[in-house]
């Protein structure tokens, strides 16, 4: 019989002020854009002809009022178009070495805490590992947060701890094959990659 070890497992619960996601429409936009980008990355579809039908189908699975579905689909389509029109977006979706979309991984950090994560996009390119986290957030057009640079800095500051955890999980996963790991946010509505 194996020896009995006392194990303590802790989990972190988000309090409302730490919740990084907005309201239902914003969540639905994020889900829809992520689903479309995963489909594009996994299939390497030569054409996006069927994407409009797919968006419509996927949108019906979102927790959103039926009368808001056309707006949801329209906004998601705008984000996907921006990604596909961006050279960085095209590069991210390229069929890289060991490319994965919506990759679920788990691991234990140096402090013994268990972490589960879903990496939006992971791949290897030119001897480096890349972890990309898609963001559908957009800078405000009016008010105090209308400054795009301030918006980008706030987003980087907000998500850096999350991507640092992802990097640590990937480092531990590939401990026998270490390579530099680059982490970045890709803003789908802006078509911009911002490395952290």
Would you give an account of this structure?
- With 196 residues, the chain is an alpha+beta fold.
- Helix content is 40%, strand content 22%.
- The chain has helices at 24-43, 51-59, 69-85, 87-93, 148-173; strands at residues 97-108, 114-125, 128-135, 181-187, 192-195.
- The chain has a 5-stranded mixed β-sheet with strand order 1-2-3-4-5.
- The radius of gyration is 18 Å and the shape is globular.
- The protein starts with 23 loop residues before the first helix and ends with a strand.
Fill in the keyword field for this structure.
single chain, alpha+beta, 196 residues
Brief characterization of the structure:
The protein is an alpha+beta fold. It is built from five helices and five strands, in the order H-H-H-H-E-E-E-H-E-E.
Instruction: Please tally the β strands and state the result.
Output: 5
Strand proportion, as a percent range, falls in: 15-25%
Query: Would you tell me the overall average pLDDT?
Result: 85
Give the termini separation. Answer: 47 Å
Give the class from helix and strand content and strand pairing.
alpha+beta
Identify the strand order in the major beta sheet: 1-2-3-4-5
Q: Which stretches are poorly predicted, pLDDT < 50 over at least 5 residues?
A: 1-21
Shape: globular
Biggest pleated sheet: 5 strands, mixed
Q: Which radius of gyration do the C-alpha atoms yield?
A: 18 Å
- What's the helix-strand series? HHHHEEEHEE
Number of helices: 5
Q: Report the helical percentage.
A: 40-55%
């Amino acid at each position: 019989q194996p020896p009995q070890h006392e194990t303590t497992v802790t989990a972190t619960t988000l309090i409302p002020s730490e919740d990084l996601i907005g309201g239902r429409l914003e969540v639905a936009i994020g889900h829809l854009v992520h689903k479309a980008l995963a489909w594009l990355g996994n299939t390497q579809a030569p054409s996006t002809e069927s994407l409009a039908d797919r968006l419509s189908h996927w949108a019906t699975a979102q927790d959103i009022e039926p009368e808001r579905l056309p707006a949801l689909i329209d906004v998601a389509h705008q984000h996907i178009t921006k990604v596909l029109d961006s050279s960085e977006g095209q590069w991210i979706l390229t069929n890289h070495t060991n490319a994965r979309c919506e990759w679920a991984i788990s691991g234990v950090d140096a402090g013994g805490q268990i972490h589960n994560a879903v990496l939006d996009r992971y791949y290897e390119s030119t001897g480096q590992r890349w972890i990309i986290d898609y963001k559908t957030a957009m800078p405000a057009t009016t008010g105090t947060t209308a400054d795009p640079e301030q918006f980008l800095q706030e987003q980087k500051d907000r998500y850096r701890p999350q991507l640092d955890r992802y990097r640590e999980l990937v480092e531990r996963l590939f401990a026998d094959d270490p390579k530099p790991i680059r982490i970045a946010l890709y803003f789908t509505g802006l078509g911009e990659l911002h490395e952290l």
